[in-house]
Design brief:
- The protein has eight helices and seven strands; from the N terminus they run E-H-E-H-E-H-E-H-E-H-E-H-H-H-E.
- By secondary structure, it is an alpha/beta fold.
- The protein has two domains: 199 residues, 3-Layer(aba) Sandwich (Rossmann fold); 38 residues, no CATH class.
- It has a seven-stranded parallel β-sheet with strand order 3-2-1-4-5-6-7, with helices on both faces.
- It is globular.
């Protein structure tokens, strides 16, 4: 299937590892020009080197903490000026969590800053550029299934993800007249460092062995396993492609059947 992504300019944030890296990799495989960001210079350089060796689309790395407004704005505008901007995959690290009574006001604020405000800033800057260009574009928010199926051991994730799903839906209405399509992606349990962290928190909160906590999390899916990052990347790349021109304002659970709500 020809996805029409060759030579498109893509930004994938928080992409020096984990799900973000897999998404960036699949865009490169489609011949897109990918700009990826991360906070750690060594990890960013490593990611760029690994993707550049594929010799398909071009790759540029940015050391950027997406919770810092000035860094986010500078990166988005540098990409737009030098490469153009067709697609933003607004990804950001998940927030720390704890039992509800241990969550201070500062922890809630940090959770909002780490994910919600970080992605809002990225989207706001990209939206303005796409609107001014007159060519439209795609904005994909990386939220998560806990926004639809809350868990006590991931309470900050649910709070953040539900906010992003709401923002994505609202922004699709504003973007419609300019052909700026906005959607939210809800990754379920994937084989990443984040799921190791959540399993460790569940193990601590429930006072059970880590292996049992991991088994419970995988058992929540109908496929009874963690997803592979490439399985998420395929959905993200499709939504950015010219095969998804009538999809906006939607939220997609890529979760192996974890979410049970309709």
């Amino acid at each position: 299937m020809e996805l029409g992504l060759k030579d498109k300019s893509i930004i994938v944030t928080a992409a020096s590892g984990g799900l973000g890296f897999s998404i960036a990799k699949m865009f490169v495989e489609e011949g897109a020009n990918v700009c990826l960001s991360g906070r750690n210079p060594e990890r960013v350089d490593d990611a760029v080197q690994r993707l550049s060796e594929m010799s398909l689309g071009s790759v540029k790395g940015y050391v950027c903490d997406v919770t810092d407004p000035s860094q986010s704005i500078e990166m988005i505008n540098d990409v737009a000026t030098n490469f153009g901007l067709d697609v933003l995959v607004a990804n950001s690290p998940g927030a720390a969590t704890a039992p509800f009574l241990e969550m201070t006001d500062d922890m809630w604020r940090d959770a909002a800053e780490a994910k919600v405000f970080a992605q809002i800033r990225l989207a706001r800057e990209a939206f303005g550029i796409m609107k001014s260009s007159g060519k439209g574009g795609r904005i994909l928010f990386m939220a998560g299934t806990h926004g639809r199926q809350p868990h006590a051991h991931a309470i900050t994730a649910g709070f953040s993800n539900a906010s992003l799903q709401n923002i994505s839906k609202a922004l699709s209405e504003e973007g419609g007249p300019y052909n700026i399509l906005c959607n939210a992606i809800n990754p379920g349990p994937f084989a990443t460092e984040r799921m190791v962290y959540l399993a460790e928190e569940k193990s601590r909160d429930d006072n059970i062995p880590l292996e049992e906590a991991t088994a419970i999390l995988t058992a929540e899916t109908v496929l009874k396993r963690y997803g592979e990052p490439e399985e998420l990347a395929a959905a993200v790349v499709f939504l950015a492609s010219n095969k998804a021109t009538y999809i906006t304002g939607a939220t997609f659970d890529i979760d192996g059947g974890q979410v049970k709500a309709l």
